[in-house]
Design goal:
single chain, alpha+beta, Thiol Ester Dehydrase, Chain A, five-stranded antiparallel β-sheet, two-stranded parallel sheet, 3 helices, globular
Length: 157
C-alpha cells in the first residue's frame, strides 16, 4: 500500500465574514461555517488521496465562540487517519479580528470522506505518513481528540 504525507493534505482557507453569511446579530450563520469546513476538508482529502472525494459524515460540532461581521474566519484542515477507502480530516475554525490582531478558536470537528475512482466507486487510499515530529504530534492530537469526543457522545446515549 502506498502512503501520502500528512503535510501534503494541509489546507488553510480564509473568509471575510460579510452580511450575506450573518444572522440578525451580525454573527456567522452556523450553516456558512459548516459549508467552509466541508470545503476545506474536501480539499485536504483530495490533496492527500489524489482522488475525487465525497463527504460521508461530519462528527459532532460545537460552536464555541462567534465570528462577528468584519472578522476573518480561518479554516484549517488536515488528514489524520484513513480506512480502506475513507479519509478522516480534522478541521479547526478560528476568528481573527484584523484590526486588533487577536484570534480565538470557534469550532473544531472531524469529517470523513470516501475517495472515488473514475467510475464513482469507492477506491483505496494511501496510508498516512508522518515525516516529522510535528506531523506525528498533529496526528496524535487529532486521534486523541476524536477518541475523547466519541467517548463523550457515547456517554450521552
Amino acid at each position: 500500500m502506498s502512503s501520502a504525507r500528512l503535510s501534503d493534505s494541509y489546507t488553510e482557507m480564509t473568509e471575510l465574514l460579510l452580511p450575506n453569511d450573518t444572522n440578525n446579530l451580525g454573527r456567522a450563520l452556523g450553516g456558512a461555517v459548516l459549508h467552509w469546513m466541508d470545503i476545506c476538508a474536501a480539499i485536504a482529502a483530495m490533496r492527500f488521496s489524489g482522488k475525487q472525494c465525497v463527504t460521508a459524515s461530519v462528527d459532532h460540532v460545537d460552536f464555541l465562540a462567534p465570528i462577528d461581521l468584519g472578522e476573518v474566519a480561518v479554516i484549517e484542515g488536515y488528514v489524520f487517519n484513513v480506512g480502506r477507502t475513507s479519509i478522516d480530516v480534522r478541521v479547526e475554525v478560528r476568528a481573527e479580528d484584523p484590526k486588533a490582531g487577536e484570534s480565538r478558536a470557534t469550532t473544531t470537528s472531524f469529517l470523513t470522506f470516501v475517495a472515488l475512482d473514475g467510475d464513482g466507486r469507492p477506491t483505496e487510499v494511501p496510508e498516512v505518513a508522518c515525516e516529522t515530529a510535528n506531523e506525528e504530534a498533529l496526528r496524535e492530537r487529532a486521534l486523541e481528540e476524536r477518541r475523547a469526543q466519541l467517548e463523550e457522545y457515547a456517554d450521552r446515549l
